[in-house]
Design a protein that fits this description.
295 residues, 3-stranded antiparallel beta sheet
Length: 295
């Protein structure tokens, strides 16, 4: 979330334009130095910061990810390669390739092709994924760019913007301010979290082993952060109940406050990029749904 949040604030569209054709042709030339048969089959729709390709190397299907121009985007991908190598190198092949294109140094991550899950992902499977990567990352000295304090600061700014532009009424605005204040007073141990855990970021190998991708938003936060973040997505509303958080070992008020904080930031990002125009419910009602879990 945070890398996209800062990208939207920066709004430097011209700086991040890339030459896709140059990326493809230069990558093919570079890989032919090592592999006999190299073919880039297609490109995928890019995310906010990433550019993606499907690649065949010696008949084996691969997935390629590179980044938009900008040192911060390059550093994010380097960190993603490091994290995925720690967590998943015993399951899939992950390779880093550095290439100069149009006078700029870019990093490419090449890994085994992964597949979306054909069924609904439930919260038991999500928690299992989180426990797996947090356990492995705890054994390494992984340094990441962001921390939970950055989320709090973003939330404070986003809340004021949403209220000033009339997306929130005064009563819910004041309620949100109380939540942010409680969060700032809380003390917690920090571990490495994914930072943007959604269903689409959980992919699967041919043997149906889950692999969590897109670590550009990784951050230091408390252990339950990724689970609470996952719950803030619209598709997870079906799990909401008064006992949801406590049944998963999370204090009800603390968990609700954190979910509200995350939703505030995501709402302001949606406002900034205008995707909110397709929302089925308002920001106000979305936040109220979360508060209703403690009522």
């Amino acid at each position: 979330m945070l890398s996209k949040y800062y990208h939207l604030k920066k709004n430097s569209i011209e700086e991040t334009k890339v030459d896709i054709d140059a990326f493809i042709s230069t990558l093919e030339i570079k890989l032919r130095e090592k592999y006999k048969d190299v073919k880039i089959e297609q490109t995928f729709p890019g995310g906010t910061l990433g550019i993606f390709f499907e690649l065949h190397i010696n008949g084996k299907r691969k997935f390629v990810k590179t980044h938009q121009y900008g040192i911060e985007y390059k550093e994010n991908l380097i960190k993603e390669i490091e994290i995925m190598s720690v967590v998943y190198s015993d399951i899939i092949e992950i390779e880093r390739v550095d290439i100069e294109i149009n006078g700029r140094q870019l990093v490419f991550m090449i890994m085994d092709y992964l597949f979306p899950y054909n069924y609904s992902i439930d919260f038991y499977e999500v928690k299992k994924c989180i426990n797996n990567y947090q356990r492995k990352l705890a054994t390494k000295n992984i340094e990441v760019k962001y921390c939970f304090r950055d989320v709090i600061e973003a939330g404070k700014e986003s809340l004021e913007i949403l209220y000033a532009d009339s997306f929130l009424k005064k009563d819910i605005y004041l309620h949100c301010r109380e939540s942010l204040q409680r969060i700032m007073e809380k003390r917690y141990l920090e571990v490495v979290n994914h930072g943007d855990l959604s269903n689409i970021n959980i992919m699967y190998t041919e043997k149906q082993i889950p692999i969590v991708i897109d670590w550009e938003d990784s951050l230091y936060a408390f252990q339950e952060y990724d689970y609470l973040y996952w719950l803030t997505f619209f598709s997870q509303r079906k799990y909401y109940s008064s006992s949801l958080l406590e049944n998963n070992g999370i204090h009800k008020i603390w968990g609700t406050d954190v979910m509200v904080l995350i939703t505030i930031v995501k709402s302001e990002m949606s406002y900034r990029n205008e995707s909110y125009k397709n929302n089925r419910i308002s920001f106000q009602n979305r936040i109220n749904e979360i508060y209703n879990m403690i009522r």
